[in-house]
Amino acid sequence: MDLSDYFGVVRRRWLVIVACCLVGLCLGGLVYAQQPSQYKATSTVFVSLARGDANYSQSVVQSYVEIVGQPVVLAPVIDQLKLNRSLQSLKSAVSVQAPPGTVVVQISVVDPQAVRASQIANALANRLSQVAPQLTPGVNDSRTVNVSVSSPAVPPSAPVGPSSKRYLVGGLFAGLVLGVASALLLHLIDRRLRNASGIRMVTDSPVIGVVPDEWGGGSLRVAAEGRLPNAFRRLRANIAAHHQDFPRTIAVLSPEHGAGKTTVALGLAIALAETGERVLLIDADLRSPGLLLKADESGSGLTDVVMKRAELTDAVTVSSAAQISVLRAGTPTASPGSLISSRGMSQLIGSARDSWNVVVLDAGTVLASSDALILAQHTDGVLMVVDAKKTTRPQLAKAADLLDDARVKVLGVVLNRSDTPEPFQFRTDHPTSHAAPSVKIRRPPITPATNSGRAAVERLAAAAEARRKA
């Protein structure tokens, strides 16, 4: 994972991180509320010299700072005040300092009780005034140093702690660390194909398109602008960039149901039609047809043509809105696998190839049945559609292995329903133009069959236009 992947994890899992931060903040506040108030009392001891210079006095004062924390001072105070504390506990509550350039010692004590804090501070100051002269050498049995309490401690009126900011900030930081760690852990155990990096970990096929999570398939309504149509134009351009001759027959399939292959097939067909090409979209997923019939359209379709119950030109409908020809699934059949494997299916695909520039097949799912693999073998290549919110890495890996075993050419992988920005840049000379850069499609030779196919398409288009005006 690179830095952008980590940022992507944080962006996708921001709710987890925010929740952990709030929990940490609340726990910090709860711990703060349970902490007792702390009061600080300070007693000041003055050190004077009977003889000697000032430098000697200041050096002696620094020694007294160390003496306050010794058992010789602390133990008698514990006994005097009957404190239920150990020497180490009392030492941790005491702070001693000697301001530079002075001959005073400030003894501060922090305790949950204000009165007891002042009592301990005064007891320590008195004990230091008794012990210090005994530890300082005198001359002719006379004292060299005099230590006296110059400012006794008084019970403080307000607590000095605990600090609410410290607990709240600490809780917030702990929650942030926990949230980020949880987000990364969820990312590691999440086997869904969230982005292109996850796809590249599974297959060597290029990620040839990214479709935003904005639309469900099955409708022929088309928007001229927006993220979704632009994503399909980028897909069209990327296929052209990866292949010198644009594939004439393309099967769009997915590892499992619900990945959005119908959306991608329909969007690609419309994007190709924008370039002026004659495009036929075939709903070849006979187990779960995705293209919906309108009330005024015939129910005949793919199954009827293969079983010789209808002619191809009669079963194809033309969408005046999308400018594409559509062959729907047709009458349901009890044995879709046998129909897909039949000679009539391969002949139908061949006839469609002769009559249209590009044929896009909405083929089934790879893992559910062998239908999609059989159809893919009759095409120039397949597009594998995966759902960023549903498809898992094992599913894609299994589907890729099956396609490889069937020796099917994979044009690329399309990441559908993605929340991440599209990594592909589609450039044209005119930003407002919808035309793709030079899509090279090898057109079929002019033969009687081709001419009849063109005439059929023209008749269908004219009939659709007449119905629309009527």
Which terms would index this structure?
Rossmann fold; single chain; Alpha-Beta Plaits; four-stranded antiparallel beta sheet; 470 residues; alpha/beta
Q: Low-confidence runs (pLDDT<50, min 5 residues)? A: 423-440, 443-457
- Give the radius of gyration: 42 Å
What is the CATH architecture assignment of the largest domain?
3-Layer(aba) Sandwich
| Beta-strand proportion | 15-25%
Largest sheet: number of strands, sense, barrel closure: 8 strands, mixed
CATH class membership of the largest domain: Alpha Beta
Distance between the termini: 59 Å
At the fold tier of CATH, the topology name of the largest domain is Rossmann fold
N-to-C SSE series?
Answer: HHEHHHEEHEHHEHEHEHHEEHHEHEHEH
Q: Which geometry do the CA atoms define? A: rod-shaped
Counted up, domains total: 3
Q: Residue-averaged pLDDT, rounded? A: 83
Number of strands: 12
Indicate the percent of residues in helices: 40-55%
Structural class, judged by helices and strands?
A: alpha/beta
Spatial strand sequence of the major β-sheet:
5-12-11-6-10-7-9-8
Under CATH, the homologous superfamily of the largest domain reads: P-loop containing nucleotide triphosphate hydrolases
